[in-house]
Amino acid sequence: MLVIISVKLKVRPCLLYEEEYKDCKSIRSRFHQYFIYGSLSDCTQWKRDYDNCIRWRENNNKNACRELIEVEMSRRIERLKAHRENDVWEKRASPPKSWNKPLPPYMQERMKGSYLAQKADELESPSKERTFCAIM
After folding, report:
1. CB neighbours of 13 closer than 8 A, spacing ≥ 6?
2. Is residue 127 scored above 80 in pLDDT?
């Protein structure tokens, strides 16, 4: 049961693989690929992923599922690569101690007549009549 849930979280719906493939092959995307990279991207992986997804969903093919999960994991690693290699910001385990201290007086004064303050007051006191914007 846990393995099935884990697989469903890692494998996208088959329709998404098909849409990615169609988008990759579209004229608009081809123009973009050529303009940005100087060559056309290889879209066969999206087609292979779609075919593997269909084999997994319809025939419960374990090899197709395994290949699909490996590709998804490599995509995830590639997507998060820049985030993990970023050494500009120090990553913290908990929020700063003073994360919820009150605003300085000059900011509180500036906020008094703002739309945000009005909405905050409405949410705090439910007895007041709330205002909604409706465009007809």
Report:
1. 53
2. no
